[in-house]
Amino acid sequence: MNIRGIIFDLDGVICSTDEYHYLAWKQMADEEGIDFDRKVNERLRGVSRAESLEIILERARREYTDEEKDSMMERKNSCYREFLSGMNPDDVSREVRETLEELRRKGYRLAIGSSSRNTVYILERIGLSDFFDDVSDGTIIARSKPDPEVFIKAAGMLHLRNEDCLVIEDAPAGIDAANAGGFVSVGIGSAASCDRASYRVEHFADILNIAENCADAGTKSAETLSALL
Ligand code: BG6
Ligand code: MG
User: Of the candidates 84, 115, 139, which is a domain's last residue?
Assistant: First the structure.
């Protein structure tokens, strides 16, 4: 194994837009009188807008037509984009920014792998539009996480083999997607305790260690490598 590329989820990894997803869904659910809380919200991480709505509707007291579902998704998305419009480069922490720059200096190829159809807009707001080598997002995939499609497309864009890429994820569904695609999965934030992740980190800067140690892994046993981390 020789790590040459790193694929980052966006919401909840590069910036805290996961909180805005929660607040926007919460507003829509409250208006409809549907119970929705942070525990249910955990299941929405990494999955598409339409699948998120279906999870929320498990607690609805009536059936909704397709037209009603479309309008609920639209309402949620316009509320979400209101939050996004207030974002700026300060919404990327210094640790994230410095780690990304250090990874770039070390020569890793860097991509985004996100289910979101708002990816390009968010990258614009936070001033990272031109930073990543490639962006694979919700606008080019047919199946969202836990399907590995978004990461497979990212690795293809980077011209790297899946096994030569780390995938950084805050969603258990994203960890499953990375594992299904043969990537090295790294859980952070909400996935920092996901035991299906190949590595779990508390701090974004720890990604540097993992990338470097994986790069040496060809000459080290799995046991030695996990002792190092
Ligand atoms: C993922 C989020 O990044 O994007 C999910 O973790 C969200 O919660 C999905 O549903 C789709 O986002 P969007 O911006 O296309 O509604
Ligand atoms: Mg995420």
Answer: 84
